[in-house]
Design a protein that fits this description.
This is Transglutaminase family protein. 17% of the residues lie in helices and 40% in strands. The protein has 265 residues and is of the alpha+beta class.
Length: 265
């Protein structure tokens, strides 16, 4: 399936600033099942592509002049093939798989999270269906609220709140999976299905022995497939977010994000 994607992000400061730096992860990943037919990023300053430790294409945007707003456009067409039961396929690993089993601040597992995941999958995670069962239980426990908040919650906070965005639900899944000693990673990108609005979205890849990476969308309790465009992977959202502020008063910004996707077979 071919996806024509237009992503516009606008940031506005309450007062002009003289300097800011952002890392952009707005280029579709070069995975076996997806290929960018064309892709362009437009920014108010020069950017140069690099590949980070996770294999993501990144750009650094640095502005040394006075500015009160930043507008970033990412536009292009991506051809995405279906995934059988979420199997991402083989890829050249830049990092050892066990790196994705190490908890982060957002994916720490406390007793409440540990008890929850062991009730759902008491025998552990061995098959793609086990992962989908866990995703379904999280989706039932934590109500999905698209676009909820800009600051992600930790896994225990999400379980307690019983509501959250795709990032929060995915962090809870990562905490549960890693509690079993299974590697898992955060995926950022776009989600679109016929009849639904397109959105920036987060989901998870889980590493299963004998299967490899299996991609699961917790928010929709389904395997990820050709409706999911992958931008970046990392241990959590902080390292996979489409835009990451390295310098500047990001906490005072107002932000508006618009994502449009048109699909054709």
């Amino acid at each position: 399936m071919k996806h024509l994607i237009k992503h516009v992000t606008r940031y506005r400061y309450p007062a002009p600033v003289n300097y800011s730096i952002q890392t952009l992860r707005l280029t579709p990943r070069r995975d076996d099942h997806q290929h960018a037919l064309r892709w362009q990023i437009q920014t108010p300053g020069e950017i140069q592509p690099q590949v980070d430790a996770y294999g993501n294409v990144t750009h650094t945007l640095t502005l040394h002049r006075t500015h009160s707003e930043i507008e970033i456009h990412a536009v292009g067409q991506v051809d995405i093939h279906p995934l059988a039961q979420g199997h991402v396929g083989d890829e050249e690993e830049r990092l050892p798989v066990y790196i994705y089993g190490v908890p982060t601040a957002l994916t720490q597992c406390d007793d409440t999270v540990r008890d929850f995941c062991r009730r759902v999958v008491p025998s552990g995670l061995h098959t793609p269906q086990d992962v989908l069962t866990l995703a379904g239980a999280i989706r039932e426990r934590v109500a999905y609220q698209p676009g909820m908040g800009s600051a992600p919650m930790t896994a225990p906070e999400t379980l307690s709140a019983r509501r959250g965005g795709s990032h929060d639900q995915t962090h809870l899944l990562l905490a549960c999976v890693r509690a079993f000693g299974t590697p898992a990673r955060f995926v950022s990108g776009y989600w679109h299905e016929a009849g639904d609005d397109a959105a920036s979205h987060g989901w998870a890849d889980v590493w299963l022995a004998g299967h490899g990476w299996v991609s699961v969308d917790v928010s929709h309790a389904t395997f990820a497939s050709d409706g999911h465009c992958r931008l970046a992977v990392a241990r959590d959202y902080e390292s996979a977010s489409p835009v990451r502020w390295l310098h500047g008063v990001a906490a005072t910004l107002s932000m508006n994000v618009s994502v449009q996707v048109q699909t054709s077979h």
